[in-house]
Prior knowledge:
alpha/beta; Rossmann fold; 6-stranded mixed beta sheet
Amino acid sequence: MSIKVASLTKIYETQKAVDDISFDIKKGEIVGFLGPNGAGKSTTMKMITTYLPPTEGTAEVCGFDVREQSMEVRKRLGYLPEANPLYFEMYVREYLEFSAGIHKLGKDTNKRIEEMIALTGLNKEAHKKIGALSKGYKQRVGLAQAMLHNPEVLILDEPTSGLDPNQIVEIRDLIKRIGEQKTVLLSTHIMQEVQAMCSRVIIINNGKIVADDSIDHIQQANTTQGALIVTFESTVDKKMFAGIKSIKSLENIEGNKWKLTTDKPDEIRKEVMQWALNNNININTMQAETQSLEEVFRTLTKS
């Protein structure tokens, strides 16, 4: 496993910021780490990246323990914290050269710096001081720094914060490409980003993991009871549904797509199928209504 977390706990005086959480992440996975503010996301990321010592439990990166082998962990890990720490008086290339020196890239330094500048779209800004850059370009510098030493694992805390819509798409595509070869754990509050980038999500609330699965499985597990979404091949008039006794209410979502609600979810599918057959109506799709990822998130993190 690229990341292995077992019974990880962080206590500040009497508060459990992270409460006995466990999960594994394999190479090639891009995992969204979601939760409301104060849920324990950043604290967990800081423990995995060796910035905070766990109170209890263990965390490993590429087989190395974050407490016992922290230097080996750091060699294999790139980290972009939520508060992107940069030296504003340094020029972009100067800062990346400084970071390359820390990672001891040696003869590969210049080549790697130019690759990261191109990859993160910093070409036109590379001659400027970091303090003169917009927030979006500062974020790109942080990403370039995190990837500079070609780490096996990337931990990204709000990686698209401050970016405009075009930049968000560019960084999103970049993270997806990186995720084909590396392991990426990213935190964000933007559900569209999660759905666009991630194969799996971990949702944390009050320091505990409340969901850990693929997006599809999480949505399927949170279906709306008694609601059926049906798409017909041709136009269906509202009056025609009168023959389906199990329908409690109905709503035209758009075009030939309808939402049917019922108190008898076990019966309505058979009734709709028989009704369509009797009326020579073709059904394209029929499925239980699932909550959006945003709705699932709100449901799981209410308390």
